[in-house]
Design brief:
three-stranded antiparallel sheet; 45% helix; globular
Amino acid sequence: MRCPFCNEDDTKVIDSRPVDNAIRRRRQCEKCGRRFTTYEKVETIPMMIIKKDDSREPYDRSKIETGILSACHKRPISINRINAVVDEIENQILGRDRREISSSEVGELVMSKLQDLDDVAYVRFASVYREFKDVETFLLEIEKLAKKRN
């Protein structure tokens, strides 16, 4: 495992613990001495995402993380909370009996979690995900959100 700080190949495992369906390993770089955490997951049949054009691609957690991080940019939400939300979404996706899920189902899962997390992040994500074309569409979404809050 390469050190993410100095890119050295020589790291040692300090601690290992099982978490959910993975193993958490605490590592230390032999060169710079910094510590970092890695997670090992059992490799199974990959979950496939069915795109809008009916093409398929392997599930990629980083796409969900990127979307949520963009929506939460400059919001008072800790990275730990964001990671917890991504974990919840991933567990829902990977916990299904099916090995395929549509990108629209993933988008709706993300939106439901963001709606509980932060209103501004939700509207930001919705504006991109639902491809708002004008201000009226934006305002309608905000009105729906306000009605749910009351």
